[in-house]
Write a structure and sequence with these properties.
It catalyses: a 2,3-saturated acyl-[ACP] + NAD(+) = a (2E)-enoyl-[ACP] + NADH + H(+). This is Enoyl-[acyl-carrier-protein] reductase [NADH]. Keywords: Fatty acid biosynthesis, Fatty acid metabolism, Lipid biosynthesis, Lipid metabolism, NAD, Oxidoreductase. InterPro entries: Enoyl-ACP_Rdtase_NADH, NAD(P)-bd_dom_sf, SDR_fam. With 308 residues, the chain is an alpha/beta fold. It has ten helices and seven strands. It has a seven-stranded parallel beta sheet, with helices on both faces. Helix 1 crosses helix 10 and helix 6 runs parallel beside helix 7. The radius of gyration is 19 Å and the shape is globular. The termini are far apart. The mean pLDDT is 96. The structure holds nicotinamide-adenine-dinucleotide. Nicotinamide-adenine-dinucleotide binds next to helix 1, strand 5 and helix 8.
Length: 308
């Protein structure tokens, strides 16, 4: 039988701090396919994440069909805003949530992975993180600092991760990131330069696929996911309406799940996708194909998808 088999592979999933987002769902799918999974967690969220895990608060979501639990091989502190520890300002390095965490930069994580697991410790890297401090502001009202932070944390971090992690990957290694359709269509409410960051991330996916493909033989893809009420998305303030709208207006009206995204990511990083790189893969129940809402006001009588 043809199956997704990641046995003997190690994945790093950057951007897991609870069990409600895509990072967690991807980590679970990769583990289910046999991979060992390490995660990178933002230092301000690390303490609470470890406490919730220790107290068993995530046991239900960690459970596989056979009753066993998802285990993380190692949890690392990672702030993807910083390429090296030296580039972090003193007030960050001395902050109480950071100072006990060692080198939380992208380069620091690369060094720790090598120290923990030896040369070429990785096969799979998942970038499932984003942050736009002014996401609630329209682009017209976004400050330069807010815009640059959104692009730096949400897009440049992927460039930096490919630069620092690709040399640590075995041949046939694979990167995947998470993007959103606001990169290419206007989504009012997704502001602060986050739409710009996702456009950069998708463009960089193509260029990184070429450059890192030629240099290291790795693949680089991104998944354009439909709206999902994760912690990060809930901060935008309109996520429930976006989920409902997408479900009402997509070819497939069952709401998209994080598991849909996890399964697609497991395929993309697996040998079954060996011919796929530089791609933006939509996992959105087909919403991206639509050019018109299906409310009765807009859809003609007899339209098979017409909503009441
Ligand atoms: N939820 C959606 O509707 C949706 C849709 C399409 C794409 N996405 C993308 O999916 C990815 C995962 O987001 P999610 O919605 O699952 O939410 P999430 O809250 O589970 O994940 C976001 C993670 O980013 C981490 N993070 C923020 N700043 C960081 C930094 N500087 N360094 C390291 N980590 C940092 C947060 O701690 C959090 O764990 C993001 O790239 C997001 O833009 C989300």
């Amino acid at each position: 039988m043809l199956k997704i088999d990641l046995t003997g592979r190690r994945a790093l999933v950057a951007g897991v701090a609870d069990d409600g987002g895509f990072g967690f769902a991807i980590a679970k799918a990769l583990a289910q396919a046999g991979a060992k999974v390490c995660v990178g967690t933002w230092p301000p969220a690390l303490g609470i994440f470890q406490t919730l895990l220790r107290r068993g608060k995530m046991d239900e979501s960690r459970k596989f069909a056979d009753g066993s639990l998802l285990e993380f091989e190692k949890i690392y502190a990672l702030d993807a805003a910083f390429d090296t520890l030296e580039s972090a300002p003193a007030e960050v390095r001395e902050n109480k949530r950071y100072k006990e965490q060692g080198d939380f930069s992208i380069a620091g994580l690369a060094a720790q992975l090598t120290a923990d697991f030896g040369e070429q410790p990785l096969d799979i890297v998942v970038h499932s993180l984003a942050n736009g401090p002014e996401v609630k502001k329209p682009l017209l009202e976004t400050s330069r600092a807010g815009y640059l932070e959104a692009v730096g944390v949400s897009a440049y971090s992927m460039v930096s991760m490919v630069a620092k992690f690709a040399p640590l990957m075995k041949k046939d290694g694979s990167f995947v990131s998470l993007t959103y359709m606001a990169s290419e269509r206007v989504i009012p409410g997704y502001g602060g330069g986050m739409s710009s960051a996702k456009a950069a991330l998708e463009s960089d996916t193509r260029v990184l696929a070429y450059e890192a493909g030629r240099k290291y033989g790795v693949r680089v893809n991104t998944i354009s996911a439909g709206p999902w009420a994760s912690r990060a998305a809930s901060a935008i303030g309109i996520i429930d309406a976006m989920v409902e709208y997408a479900s009402n207006n997509s070819p497939l009206t069952d709401p998209m799940t994080a598991e849909d995204v996890g399964n697609a990511a497991a395929f993309l990083v697996s040998p079954l996708a060996a011919g796929i790189t530089g791609t933006t893969l939509y996992v959105d129940k087909g919403y991206h194909t639509m050019g018109k809402a299906t409310d009765a006001r807009y859809a003609p009588p007899g339209d098979p998808g017409r909503n009441a």
